[in-house]
Automatic annotation (TrEMBL):
SUPFAM superfamilies: P-loop containing nucleoside triphosphate hydrolases. Signal peptide: none annotated. Residues 24-319 form the UvrD-like helicase ATP-binding domain. This is DNA 3'-5' helicase. One of its GO terms (molecular function) is helicase activity. It comes from the Bacteria. Pfam families: UvrD-helicase, UvrD_C. Residues 662-716 are annotated as: Disordered.
Amino acid sequence: MEENLAQASSGERFFCRKSAEVGVTLNKVQQQAVLQTEGPLLLLASPGSGKTTTVIMRIGYLLEEKGVAPSRIKAVTFSRASATDMKERFARFFPGLPPVDFSTIHSLAFEVVRDYMWRTGTPYRIIEGELRPDEEQELAGQEQPPLHKKMILRHLFGNIVGGTITEEQMDDLTTYISLIKNKLIRQEEWATVPCEVREAHSILRAYETFKRSGADKLLLDYDDMLTVAHQALETEPFLLAKYQCRYDYVLTDESQDTSAVQHAIIEKLVRKHRNLCVVADDDQSIYSWRGADPSYLLQFGNAYPGAKTLFMEQNYRSTRHIVDTANRFIKRNQNRYDKNMFTHNPEGHEVTIRSLSSYAFQASYLVRAITGEEELREIAILYRNNSSAIGLMNAFDRAGIPFYMKDADLRFFSHWVVEDVLNFMRMSYTDKRPDLLEKIHMKLAGYITKQQIAALKMIGNGESVFDNLTAHVELKDYQHKLLEEAKTTFRELNTMPPREAIRTIRGKLGYEKAIDRMCERLGFRKEYLMGILNTLEEIAEPLDTLEDFAKRLKHLETVLRQSRARKSHNAVTCSTFHSSKGLEFKRVYMIDLIDGIIPSSDDKDKKGEAGSAAMEEAVRLFYVGMTRARTELELITYRERDGAKVTESAFVTGVRRIVNPDAEDEEGKAQPGAVTRSGASGGPRGVKPGAASRKRSLDDPGASNRKRSMAGSGSIGSAVSVKVVKPVAVRSPDAIAESAALRAGVKVKHRKFGQGEIMQTDGDRVRIRFDEGEKTLSVRTCLEMGILELEKK
Ligand SMILES: Nc1ncnc2c1ncn2[C@@H]1O[C@H](COP(=O)(O)OP(=O)(O)OP(=O)(O)O)[C@@H](O)[C@H]1O
């Protein structure tokens, strides 16, 4: 009792002092979390609920009020970046105090491993680290695999499956291995864990053997750090005692993404004193595909009987509309702690749902929505897959909008599909190079075998490869006609605009059929490969020549590389949902919200328990995206992509139903270009908006998402009211709407490029001379977006 009182008063003093010093007054639950220093504590923190603030205050309290030495406290962070972030924040809050030990679980595990290896006299070597693509290429040619994880796996794949492992297969394989290690799955069960790579379990078995016996030292990868540390703490009582005695207070952050082996290490570490604070949000667990185990949190009391659980539900980040909508959205999941995120922040803008008629308008819509904004660092565009980034950056680069690509994936530009397309194009300049044909011979209509290529290479008369094949190499009957046609098509290809050229490669030259065959034979994901081809077409669309296309690809690669360095610049952030965790922006656009992307086709293909777990994780991922926005959140979907109909994401439909539960049936049909906005508590209760005013057809995807008049407002249920608005189109009444008006000699005004004169129109392309030079634009886009006006005389 006395101790409690003393603690309360020391707590009060501490909170008052810190409130004056750093200007943050902790709320009641946050204060409890700070004061509850002894015994196990599960701190369930909603997004933006100030968990980092609380964690830092808790550590400060232990040091300043309880007199704990900094070296007795261990804070385990999710990544090195969050360790740095915490250190910095801690230094700001407690400038006079020495730092405590903030580091990742891997770094803790590595310490244990080092210790263990030293004690047992085992020489070892770490086999991870970034390899440049050229380094990888170079090393790949060697007979013995260099002692690097990827190179060893590449080598084993070649031996066991045959052929060369692709980048995606390497990703799949390393994820599979991580999952197995992190979940501590026994070898007998490896074959039951699904992996897209054939014989993954056999490769893993060979990999484990190689690491133990393939070199003069024991080889360890990052996953091994965890399993070996876990094993060492299990079998070496001396080591266990040493680490158990090292810390009196342990704290783990982002614990929803902690895996079974990581939990097991922490359990061992705190077994004696049980002073463990686990900070987590089960609703933000998005890494179960690589071994994170959110179910552990749901059974926290089993691992730590008597543990206390606190819910930090007050969101300080976002406006009420966003918080209420996200809070209701996440409740569609079953396996979770039932939390109720709330905020005292102002109501703010409603959540916007924008349904475009086609994917083709998405990037240009974003460009228009962002052009003219000054605080670009306050804007984020979030997507499920990295593949969304390339088309986007193409559009931003053209529009001159600076962007920062978080975790930019440069591999697009060296992907074999991109290389193939460029090789097809190179063949159109000369058909006299057998070495070029050799690169694509099996991907061409007329399928030229390896033997035929070998025979061709023997000829060396410098003539057309097609002529030489027909005249000097033994061919199947059907090949003669196909190769003759290919020869003509390659010649025509050279003068085609690049988009048409890509379509010809895909169709007439047989590349898509070849991809089909490879997908069947090698288990590649067709959707993904077609996506690359579609992106290439998108890049090629406004370009005139194949040379322009090759240059543009090089340029974009450079731009992407440079964009990684723009982190602290005033630039729009483009990020996957995964990488956006922990970040916040004033305005957030979530894009490509269609069925098959989020939830992904993979999520949907899973059946039974695995299926519902995948679906719940997809919901959490969407929730992570939504909760990054401080004041403006816009969800973007569309109804057509690359000529095929697509369906909006069920999650968008879910949000729409939250926004407007009244109009479910109508909403299910998703009106073209419709804009729906959600509201939050605070509107007049019990007033239902008229169905007619709830949504509006908006086939002008450029309509401003912020300048809108309210057409109806009301409140449904107890938590969320609805405001649905009429969009005010910003399309100019003078905008050219008919293609007939686009004739050579006509003077026009472009929104961005200013005055210009039409030089030529050709199908969908219109070439215009502006002050800053000639541009070739898409007629369709100009008309649909209302970008061009007739210049007034
Ligand atoms: N009690 C409080 N009063 C006022 N502002 C607060 C309080 N607690 C936290 N904040 C503010 O809320 C914002 C979010 O806090 P913080 O970054 O600590 O959240 P978080 O929970 O770590 O976020 P997330 O996990 O979603 O990334 C910060 O600007 C912080 O200063």
